[in-house]
């Protein structure tokens, strides 16, 4: 399959470094991998307790966010707890974890919320208790100190544009596309799907989305839904998977049916399975975020908020399109293979 090498990126560290200079912190490690050791933060940060609560502990993506948060705690001399439910669909357990943080009296919470609205009340209670709340990955519809995350609408548009390019490279001028998504009602996933539709319509108006299927963040379900589409849609010309679990399921179905050479796939995020699929061609492009940065910068901004420093209301570290042409470039390789860490015991 023809693949054009295209890299979309924004300066992943620039905004964070500016903030770090303001509050006297160094975040030069926030891309993961090599580089100089981060300097310890000011004595003002020492002794702070920050809980980092992710969407699910069973995902390499969120384990990378843990690793970034853990490193920030080590660099800056703060106590970082790492928690999360076992599934991204378990909103009630995530609410319970925030309540636990309130009971422990932590100074700040860095939260990747599993719902745009279901955690509003517990976030409000945390802030009323004097706990600073920094959200990452997806926004919530109540007040918080700051948000760090990819502009998923823009990144989704890039995914739609890339799938158009891949389909066009095969000489196809019309057809339908499967949009394989994880969980309904999650702001980040909804924005990716909306952006994908917009990017596809703008670039290839002759291509249409057949269905948007939700797999509850389950690889087996995603694989089954992809197999259903392969059998039911004779003019299926491409697939977009909105997160890593969806991408892994799609890749499994593509590989099992021998369609890697004829059916382009664009997927979000990265983990070892998705990286392997990118290497063997069952996924053509990955839209790669920087969860290590989410974790590191989340702790940086939590410290800043807790010590009275100003933080930006929103910070977008950007996304990169990785394919077989650039996946071994050092900068892209670091994003595809970030460090990981487990939840606190």
From TrEMBL:
Its main location: other. It is found in: Cell envelope. GO terms for molecular function: carbohydrate binding. InterPro entries: Bact_Solute-Bind_Prot2, Peripla_BP_I, SBP_2_dom. Pfam families: Peripla_BP_4 (PF13407). Belongs to the bacterial solute-binding protein 2 family. This is Ribose transport system substrate-binding protein. The lineage of its organism: Bacteria, Bacillati, Actinomycetota, Actinomycetes, Pseudonocardiales.
